[in-house]
Every structure is written in C-alpha cells, then in structure tokens.
C-alpha cells in the first residue's frame, strides 16, 4: 500500500509538472490538453528525476534547485532550441534580446527560461506534491522505477527535439549545443559535489525563522518583481540592463531563501509557502503569455480561468494537507 501511494505521488508529479509549466503559465491553450501526456515525458520525467535524486542523496532542495536549473537549460537549449532560434518566438534576430557575441544565444531568454522552468515546471510542482506526503521526505521510486522514468525522459526529450527541429526547420550549431551541454554538465557536477558533502542544514546564520506567510509574500515579490522588470524595464533600458537587474533579483531572493532555510524551525510549511507564493505570479503572467503567443482571446481567457482556478484549489489543498502532517525533522 505504501509503495502504491509513493508511485501515485510520482505519477502526480509527472502530470503536474507540464500542467503548471505549460498550461497554468499560459503557454498552451485549453484545446492542447490532449498533448499533456507527450509533454509529460519531458517535463514530468525531468521533475521526477530531479526530485528523486535530491531525496535519494538526502541532500534535498540545494541539489534539486541545481538540477532544476540544469533541466531548464536542457529543455530550452537542447530540446526546444529556443535559446538559439529567434524564429521560435517570431523574431528575426536576437539583436534586441541580449545576444551573446559570437554564440547566437540570447541571454535574456536564457535567464527567463531558468526563472520560468526551474521554478514553475520543476520546483513548484515538487513542493506541491510533497505537501501530501506524510512523514519525512523519502524517495518514491525504486531502482527499476527510476530507470524507467529516465528512459521515458530521454526518449520523450529526443522525440520532442526531433519534432521541434522538423517543425521549425532549425538546428543549432555544434558550438551552441556544446556550450549548453557544458553548462548542464557543470550544474550536475555542482549538484553531485553538494550531495557528497556532509552539511549541517541548521548551521546557518543566527536569527528567528520567518513566518510562512512572510516566505509566501517574499516569494511572490521576487517572482513578480523579476517578470515586471522583464516586461517593462527591458523596452525602456534595453535587454542587457533588464537581464542584469532580473538576475540580481533572482540571486538576492535565492540568497535570502538559502539563509532562512538553514535556521532552526524551518520546515515543510515554509517550503510550501515559497511554492504557493510563486503561483500568483504565474496566474497574472498567464494572460500576458497567451496574448504574446497569439492564442485567440476567448480561448486564452477560458484556459487562464480553468487552469488558474485549478492551481489555486491545488495550492489550498496542499496547504491543508501540510497542516495535518506529522511533525518531523526533514532536511531542506
């Protein structure tokens, strides 16, 4: 029975990752729901692998965040190739998108992808599903299950990469793939190094742990601040200014979260609060995305309402479930 429940939680994450990362965020119309299983092979497979590695190594969120960033680069660099292909977003060039000289890579899209998919497609779904898991965080899958998910992830990502290349008639240069692959490998190496370290997660700065409500508001402020800079500062000050300011906001938020999470008293409710704080940002960002993607207004509005309402209901259910969890000491 316990094994079945763990398997169901892994399946829930497998489905929730693409649901949040594509539909709640307004990147897909409601009529594209039939594509959810296909998208889940990459989104869901990646999220489950990130979560399982973090829990198997007992290193938790520090490793999961690093792997989530690596996943974001795999998705938008090696699979979708959005970071290399201006036509992906209907652009003729990356000239006004903070192009990296000599590489044909957009720094703006790279930072945006990390902000969007490392959080919305990976970390937020993980935190939401874990809220329903009583007791200390533990792996949900055995070795066979983990291997099966890895195979699905690789096969699904490869299939989606081929479909994108054929549909857009674009393949990046060897140098672009090499740089992206090197960045992914570097992040994985950092995650492995962090997982091997014996770290006292409570050996942090002195001070009281913030209230969950404070964490929720801070997460909303950081994520909303980042996207407001991207939407309104870039057109006025230029892409590179927007990229630097946005990256500074993300880095500052990450530092504050890291320091707070190492204080005694930090627990599952705080982690869930961070995820729930990011969700409202995705809800107001969704209509912007649907409009930019040219989705018909009525269709876009219907999707935004349905997906947004379901996300709110899930967050409320997760909050209530977490409130009834047994008090445990869990590694962050």
UniProtKB/TrEMBL annotation:
Sorted UniProt keywords: Membrane, Transmembrane, Transmembrane helix
Transmembrane segments: 36-54, 145-163, 175-193, 214-233, 239-260, 272-295, 301-321
KW Transmembrane (keyword) present: yes
Highest taxon, organism lineage: Bacteria
Protein name: Uncharacterized protein
Protein source organism: Kineococcus rhizosphaerae
């Amino acid at each position: 029975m316990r094994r079945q429940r763990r398997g169901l939680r892994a399946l829930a994450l497998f489905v929730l990752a693409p649901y949040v990362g594509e539909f709640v965020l307004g990147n897909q119309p409601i009529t594209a729901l039939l594509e959810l299983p296909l998208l889940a092979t990459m989104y869901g497979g990646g999220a489950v692998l990130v979560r399982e590695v973090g829990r198997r190594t007992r290193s938790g969120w520090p490793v999961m965040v690093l792997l989530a960033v690596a996943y974001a680069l795999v998705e938008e660099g090696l699979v979708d190739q959005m970071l290399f292909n201006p036509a992906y977003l209907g652009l003729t060039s990356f000239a006004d998108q903070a192009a990296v000289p000599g590489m044909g890579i957009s720094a703006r899209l790279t930072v945006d992808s990390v902000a969007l998919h490392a959080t919305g497609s990976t970390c937020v779904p993980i935190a939401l599903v874990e809220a329903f898991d009583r007791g200390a965080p533990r792996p949900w899958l055995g070795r066979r299950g983990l291997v099966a998910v890895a195979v699905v992830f690789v096969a699904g990502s490869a299939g989606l990469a081929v479909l994108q290349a054929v549909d857009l008639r674009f393949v990046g240069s060897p140098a672009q793939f090499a740089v992206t692959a090197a960045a992914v490998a570097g992040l994985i190496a950092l995650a492995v190094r962090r997982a091997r370290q014996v770290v006292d997660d409570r050996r942090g700065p002195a001070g009281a742990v913030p209230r969950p409500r404070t964490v929720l508001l801070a997460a909303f402020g950081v994520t909303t601040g980042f996207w407001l800079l991207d939407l309104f500062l870039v057109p006025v000050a230029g892409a590179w200014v927007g990229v630097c300011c946005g990256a500074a906001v993300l880095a500052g938020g990450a530092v504050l979260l890291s320091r707070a999470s190492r204080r005694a008293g930090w627990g599952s409710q705080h982690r869930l609060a961070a995820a729930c704080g990011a969700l409202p940002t995705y809800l107001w960002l969704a209509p912007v995305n649907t409009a930019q993607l040219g989705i018909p207004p009525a269709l876009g509005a219907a999707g935004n309402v349905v997906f947004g309402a379901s996300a709110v209901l899930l967050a409320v259910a997760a909050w209530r479930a977490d409130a009834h969890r047994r008090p445990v000491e869990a590694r962050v």
